[in-house]
Structure prediction request, 147 residues.
Amino acid sequence: MLSQAFTDGETIPAKYTCDGQDINPPLTIGNIPEGTKSLALVIDDIDTPSGTWIHWLVWNIEPAAYLDIGENTTPAGSTTGRNGFGKSAYGGPCPPDRAHRYVFSVYALDRHLILPAGSGKQDVLNAANTRILGSARITGLYVRPRR
Prediction:
Protein backbone atom coordinates (compact mmCIF):
# COMPACT_ATOMS: atom_id res chain seq x y z
CA MET A 1 0.00 0.00 0.00
CA LEU A 2 1.16 3.51 -0.70
CA SER A 3 -0.19 7.03 -0.87
CA GLN A 4 0.44 9.56 -3.59
CA ALA A 5 0.15 12.28 -0.89
CA PHE A 6 2.96 11.15 1.45
CA THR A 7 5.54 8.40 1.80
CA ASP A 8 5.79 5.91 4.64
CA GLY A 9 7.15 7.61 7.76
CA GLU A 10 6.69 11.13 6.39
CA THR A 11 4.29 13.99 7.18
CA ILE A 12 0.67 13.83 6.04
CA PRO A 13 -0.14 17.06 4.16
CA ALA A 14 -2.46 19.44 6.06
CA LYS A 15 -5.04 19.11 3.28
CA TYR A 16 -6.01 15.69 4.69
CA THR A 17 -6.33 16.87 8.31
CA CYS A 18 -8.63 18.97 10.48
CA ASP A 19 -6.43 21.95 9.58
CA GLY A 20 -7.21 21.55 5.87
CA GLN A 21 -10.05 20.01 3.89
CA ASP A 22 -10.34 16.97 6.21
CA ILE A 23 -10.58 14.54 3.27
CA ASN A 24 -8.97 11.13 2.94
CA PRO A 25 -5.63 10.97 1.11
CA PRO A 26 -5.35 8.92 -2.08
CA LEU A 27 -4.22 5.32 -1.54
CA THR A 28 -3.07 2.56 -3.87
CA ILE A 29 -3.24 -1.06 -2.80
CA GLY A 30 -1.37 -3.65 -4.84
CA ASN A 31 0.03 -7.18 -4.65
CA ILE A 32 -3.25 -8.47 -3.26
CA PRO A 33 -3.00 -12.15 -2.25
CA GLU A 34 -4.68 -14.78 -4.40
CA GLY A 35 -8.07 -15.79 -3.02
CA THR A 36 -8.85 -12.33 -1.65
CA LYS A 37 -12.60 -11.67 -1.69
CA SER A 38 -12.59 -8.30 0.09
CA LEU A 39 -10.34 -5.75 1.77
CA ALA A 40 -10.63 -3.89 5.06
CA LEU A 41 -8.94 -0.55 5.73
CA VAL A 42 -8.24 0.94 9.16
CA ILE A 43 -6.55 4.25 9.97
CA ASP A 44 -5.46 4.54 13.62
CA ASP A 45 -3.77 7.28 15.63
CA ILE A 46 -1.47 5.20 17.83
CA ASP A 47 -0.24 8.08 20.00
CA THR A 48 -3.36 9.01 21.96
CA PRO A 49 -3.24 8.82 25.77
CA SER A 50 -6.22 6.44 25.80
CA GLY A 51 -4.79 3.92 23.32
CA THR A 52 -5.70 4.16 19.65
CA TRP A 53 -8.12 6.54 17.95
CA ILE A 54 -9.84 5.34 14.79
CA HIS A 55 -9.91 7.84 11.92
CA TRP A 56 -11.39 5.64 9.19
CA LEU A 57 -12.79 2.13 9.13
CA VAL A 58 -13.93 0.62 5.83
CA TRP A 59 -14.57 -3.01 4.89
CA ASN A 60 -15.98 -5.11 2.05
CA ILE A 61 -13.82 -3.17 -0.40
CA GLU A 62 -13.77 -5.06 -3.70
CA PRO A 63 -10.22 -6.17 -4.53
CA ALA A 64 -8.47 -5.47 -7.82
CA ALA A 65 -4.95 -6.18 -9.09
CA TYR A 66 -4.15 -2.57 -8.20
CA LEU A 67 -6.83 -0.66 -6.35
CA ASP A 68 -6.82 3.12 -6.29
CA ILE A 69 -8.84 4.88 -3.61
CA GLY A 70 -9.00 8.50 -4.67
CA GLU A 71 -8.85 11.43 -2.28
CA ASN A 72 -12.19 12.30 -0.70
CA THR A 73 -13.58 8.96 -1.92
CA THR A 74 -15.04 5.96 -0.12
CA PRO A 75 -14.70 2.82 -2.28
CA ALA A 76 -17.93 1.99 -4.13
CA GLY A 77 -19.89 -0.86 -2.56
CA SER A 78 -17.87 -0.82 0.67
CA THR A 79 -19.19 -0.45 4.22
CA THR A 80 -18.00 2.26 6.61
CA GLY A 81 -17.67 1.84 10.36
CA ARG A 82 -17.71 4.21 13.31
CA ASN A 83 -14.58 6.28 13.84
CA GLY A 84 -13.32 7.84 17.07
CA PHE A 85 -15.38 10.96 16.38
CA GLY A 86 -18.56 8.82 16.45
CA LYS A 87 -19.15 9.15 12.69
CA SER A 88 -19.21 6.61 9.88
CA ALA A 89 -16.80 8.59 7.72
CA TYR A 90 -13.19 9.63 7.39
CA GLY A 91 -11.98 11.97 10.13
CA GLY A 92 -8.60 13.51 9.49
CA PRO A 93 -5.66 13.76 11.88
CA CYS A 94 -6.14 16.43 14.53
CA PRO A 95 -3.65 15.78 17.35
CA PRO A 96 -4.20 18.07 20.33
CA ASP A 97 -0.67 18.26 21.66
CA ARG A 98 2.29 17.00 19.62
CA ALA A 99 3.22 14.94 16.57
CA HIS A 100 1.18 11.74 16.29
CA ARG A 101 1.65 8.64 14.14
CA TYR A 102 -1.22 7.50 11.92
CA VAL A 103 -1.12 3.89 10.80
CA PHE A 104 -2.96 3.04 7.57
CA SER A 105 -3.55 -0.74 7.59
CA VAL A 106 -5.17 -2.83 4.88
CA TYR A 107 -6.22 -6.45 5.34
CA ALA A 108 -6.89 -8.93 2.54
CA LEU A 109 -9.76 -11.21 3.56
CA ASP A 110 -11.00 -14.51 2.16
CA ARG A 111 -14.65 -13.40 2.41
CA HIS A 112 -16.92 -10.39 2.82
CA LEU A 113 -17.71 -9.40 6.40
CA ILE A 114 -21.34 -9.55 7.48
CA LEU A 115 -21.51 -6.50 9.71
CA PRO A 116 -23.84 -3.51 9.72
CA ALA A 117 -22.61 -0.05 8.73
CA GLY A 118 -21.46 1.87 11.78
CA SER A 119 -19.86 -1.16 13.45
CA GLY A 120 -16.73 -0.50 15.49
CA LYS A 121 -13.14 -1.56 14.94
CA GLN A 122 -13.29 -4.43 17.42
CA ASP A 123 -16.35 -5.86 15.63
CA VAL A 124 -14.47 -5.74 12.33
CA LEU A 125 -11.30 -7.29 13.78
CA ASN A 126 -13.30 -10.06 15.47
CA ALA A 127 -15.12 -10.87 12.22
CA ALA A 128 -11.88 -10.76 10.21
CA ASN A 129 -9.73 -12.58 12.78
CA THR A 130 -9.32 -15.95 11.04
CA ARG A 131 -10.01 -14.65 7.52
CA ILE A 132 -6.86 -12.55 6.93
CA LEU A 133 -4.76 -13.66 3.95
CA GLY A 134 -2.29 -10.79 4.14
CA SER A 135 -1.86 -7.21 5.26
CA ALA A 136 0.13 -4.06 4.58
CA ARG A 137 0.59 -0.74 6.29
CA ILE A 138 2.07 2.69 5.96
CA THR A 139 2.53 5.30 8.66
CA GLY A 140 2.10 9.04 8.33
CA LEU A 141 2.96 11.76 10.85
CA TYR A 142 1.12 14.95 11.67
CA VAL A 143 1.60 17.82 14.11
CA ARG A 144 -0.71 20.81 14.10
CA PRO A 145 0.77 24.22 13.32
CA ARG A 146 1.27 26.52 16.30
CA ARG A 147 -1.42 29.15 16.56
